[in-house]
Amino acid sequence: MTQEKTPLITDEMRAHVGKESEPYTLEVDKTSIRMFARAVGHTDPIFYDEAAAKAAGYRSLVAPPGYLGTPVYNPRAGGRRGFDIGPQPSRPLTRVLNGGTDIEYFDDICAGDVLTARSHVASYEEREGSIGQMLITTTKTVYTNQDGKVVAIMTGTSIRY
Amino acid sequence: MAAKWNEISEGMAIPELKKNCSTQQLVLWAAASGDFYQIHYDKDFAKSTGLSDIIVHGALKHAFLGQLLHDWLGGNGKIKRFGCSYRGMDYPNQDILCRGVVTRKYEENGQKLVDLEIWTENPEGNKTTPGSATVIINS
To answer: pTM for the full model?
Structure first.
């Protein structure tokens, strides 16, 4: 006999879809760019050497693909990165996997930029997989630079189970 | 070595990028990205969640695909969009082969654009991180 599982997605969660988060600040600086580029294994000097970046036509070191700044750490925020994920599912899900990342760029991001990010949940989806009942959350984050220009939109998918 | 508009054709494979993460690289990435989830550096923790070993961060594989595109462009263009799904786990000290194939070459709003299918492959030849991208070619 199969037992009907309680849906993970609650009315509160459905109401949360599309709701924009409080804006949060991310800094793009030379040290963080070099660190990101080094962690990936980039060899292009535009990520390390400011003169090379300027010679290639950029204001300063270039943010490597995938790097959208570092959130300003606030010890009072309990160590959470970025924004609050919102209302919780009908039962606690303790494990999380990253489902996917997609970034669309609209302008360059360089060292010295200060980005403001606003996130919202685009959708919740429930699926049954090899790891059991899963909650798939798709989040969109819009990054605006210090000049008010949208420089990137990231779509991220998280899998909680 | 840069990608050149008149040398790009649909169906063409771009130069591969081979990666192989040491555990040290995963720690470097944790610090650089701010992702400190223990499944990426603490074997006991990873095993307690049902994994066989620590696993490579998904976002690091996304960044590898970003490098694949960046190195191919060689300064003669920019990434407009790139994304991927994390379908399979990858482990440290195993090859992660980043590959791409041109799926479409076109001009739109005065821009020279190329769409690509991009992915990472594990040693068994499985596409653990399938994705797609659009790049702008300068000339």
So the answer is: 0.94
